[in-house]
Amino acid sequence: GKGYPDLSTRSFVSTLHNAKSTLPIYALVDFDPDGLQIMQCYKTGSQSLGHERNTTVPDMEWLGIKSAHLMEGRHTPASPSGTQASAVMPLTMRDRNCANKLLDTFRASEDPENDENCRELQVMLFLGIKGEIQGVDNAGDLTDWLDTHLPRQ
User: Residue 118 and residue 19: Cα distance in Å, rounded?
Assistant: First the structure.
């Protein structure tokens, strides 16, 4: 990925979803407030650009990275499939402020899927950590991780 999606990227994903509505669309984002905001941008659109609601993918599912993924394999630091310690970092004050604002947004929503988002943000704030996708890959290869975590169709 490339961070916050521009309109062209959101439009592409939305068009793909509309053309193949049975095809599941998954979000794989960093375990930090920005990662959750990126996923929300795809699902509900940009907060500042309400007129772009036709580029949303409300059925997008959050594949990861979640708190449990960061904890997998932590007891064996040399394990290639375990979390790399360097990919787990402390939350900054900016992260904490962003997480709290996002919690308020999720709590104000009627979407029951936001219960998991709130829970994960609360874990993030309680533990004071964030994590990058690179923390669960195997030297740049996410194949094993995806094989384990993608639902079988």
Answer: 31
The C-alpha atoms of residue 68 and residue 116 are separated, in whole angstroms, by 12
Structure-block tokens of residue 15:
């068009």
The whole model's pTM is what?
0.84
Length of the chain: 153
Asked if residues 120 and 66 have their Cβ atoms less than 8 Å apart, the reply is yes
pLDDT in tens, 138-153: 667 788 888 888 887 6
For 52-64, how does the pLDDT look when each residue is reduced to its tens digit (9 = 90+)? 667 888 889 999 9
Q: Which residues contact 96 (CB under 8 A, 6 or more apart)?
A: 125
DSSP character at residue 31: B
Q: Which domains can be identified in the chain, with CATH numbers?
A: 7-136 (3.40.1360.10)
Q: Label residue 111 left, alpha or beta by phi (over 0 means left) and psi (-120 to 50 means alpha).
A: beta
pLDDT of residue 76: 42
Q: What are phi and psi of 112, to 5 degrees?
A: -65, -20
Low-confidence ranges of the chain (pLDDT < 70): 1-2, 47-53, 73-86, 138-139, 153
